[in-house]
Amino acid sequence: MAAPKRLPSRLLPLDARFRLWQAPPQHFFMSRFLRRLVSAVAMWAIALAVVFTGNEVVFFLLIAALGLAGLWEYFQMIEKSGMRCFKAFGMCCGAAYFIGSFLFFRSNGPDADYNFETLVLLVFLFGVFARQMFRPTTKQAPLETMAYTLFGLLYVSWLFNFLTKIIYVLPQDQNGHPVGQFYVLYLVIVTKFSDMGAYLVGSKIGRHLMVPHISPAKTWEGFIGSLVFAALGSCLSLLVLPKELHALNWLHALILGVLIGLAAVVGDLGESILKRSTGVKDSGSVLPGIGGVLDLIDSLLFTGPLLYFYLRLLAR
Question: Is 123 a member of any domain?
């Protein structure tokens, strides 16, 4: 009697698909780590080159490119899961928001952002309603389509754009140039130290599952590792770049390290909720060992706003 054929993973229920990823073979950890390391080195080379050139336009283009790529992957995840959203409308709104935000903050600074942000949110909300009015009736409820689109704009575009705001959150230098790009670099360093700590510690000694109903790979040991590595990355950044990070002291570095580590874990788990809801393992495949762009920036979506408000309210 012939053995029954195994169904492709894409045809299995979501829970069954998720269990396939629960226990990857041990020898894959090192190969994936090496692929992740190569991708990380390439991305760091690009980021450092952009930061130390000090060119605002190039920095904005990098942020906008990553943000729009992440937004595209979000909409792709929604559509592949069988749900509907206004992808073209969402991408246009996301691009307009990145461009408008850069021009606004470059001219006005962060102190006049309330009216601009309110206008943006109103455009997002009114626009998605207007788009629904010209959409033919489908099986999916109109409210769901609008909600998926609006959530993508807020989750990816609005949150990731805080990196643009960080560039202009502090007073300019004597030559009239912004200094915030070094704080974006600091944010990326601490966030990625947190991710690295969670991955290394969790994969080596992780035993106690943290939230298995969301992510079966996250452990409490990895969580502690993320906080320790984030605090270490924060202190090392201040040690190496004391002049560029002049608004921070050692107390700030320690507090921010822990807070950014916490926010990074929340950001990572937040994307895990999306992945489980849509039945995908990675948001994309453009970055070997990492996945998609959204997998790369998921933690920054939550750590960026935290650093922005910390700098604006406490460190200035």
Answer: yes
